[in-house]
Write a structure and sequence with these properties.
With about 260 residues, this protein is an alpha/beta fold. It has five helices and 17 strands. Helix 1 packs antiparallel against helix 3 and helix 3 runs antiparallel to helix 4. The longest helix is centred in the first third of the chain and has 23 residues. It starts with a helix and ends in an 8-residue tail after the last strand. About 5% of the residues have low confidence.
Length: about 260
Amino acid sequence: MLGLGLIGRIAAGVRRDVAAARSRDPAARDVGPLEILVTWPGVHALFAHRIAHVLHEIGVPFLPRVIAAVSRAITGIEIHPAAKIGQGFFIDHGMGVVIGETAELGDDVTLYQGVTLGGTGFATGKRHPTVQDNVTIGSGAKLLGPITVGHGSKIGANSVVIHDVPPNSTVVGNPGHPVRVEGRRPEGPDADWVHLPDPIADAIKSLASRISALEQSGVDEAPGQGNVRPLRPAGNREDEIEQTPDTTTRVNRTVGPNPAGG
C-alpha cells in the first residue's frame, strides 16, 4: 500500500506540473505532455523533488539527498528534500534556482531562472521564505529569511526581499519595496516585467523637478536683492573694504616695517 500510495502521489504531482508548464510557458503551448516531461528541466527537477520529499517524509536516510544532488547536477536547480512545494509549481528555464530546507510554496507558484529562496544567519528552525498561492517571482530575485509572500503577489526581477510582502502587491528594488498595483489583482503568472512601478526612480524624478523649479525661481529674482557681506581681516593684515553699488573690492595694506628694508 505504501508503494502504491507513493506512486499515486508522485504521478498526480507530475501531471499537474506538466500541465502548469504547458499553460505558463509560451514555448510549450504546442508541445505534447510527453515531450515536456522528457525535455523540460524544471519538470525534471520537480519530478526528482517529489520523490526525494516523500522519501524524506517517511524517514528514509541518505537517498533523498542523493536524489537532490543528482537533480542539481543535471538541471542546475537545487531543491532541498525537506522543502514543501504545492501543486501546479512551475520553474521557467530554472538554471540557478535554489530552494532552501524550510521553504514552503503554495499552489500555482511560478519561478524564473536565478531565484533564491534562502536563509539568513545560522539560526535553526524556520529560516526560509513562505510563498503563498499564485505568486510569480522574477529572474534573479532573492527572498531571504523566514518571510511570507502574500497570495497573488509579484516579485520583480533582481529584487532582494527581506520583509513580508502583502497580498496582491508588487515588490521591486534592493531592498524590495512593496507597491500595490492599483486596479489589478494579479492571479497566476504575469510576465509583464517592463511596466513594474519603481518608487525610487519616481522619488528621484520628483527631487529633480523640485531642484529645477528652485533654480528657475532663483534666476527670476531681481538683481541687487542679495546681501553683500564684506571680507573680514585675517592675521596681521588690515583690510580696507571699498564698496561700489555693483562690486566689493578688497584692498590689502601691509602693517609694520617694509620686509625689504626700504
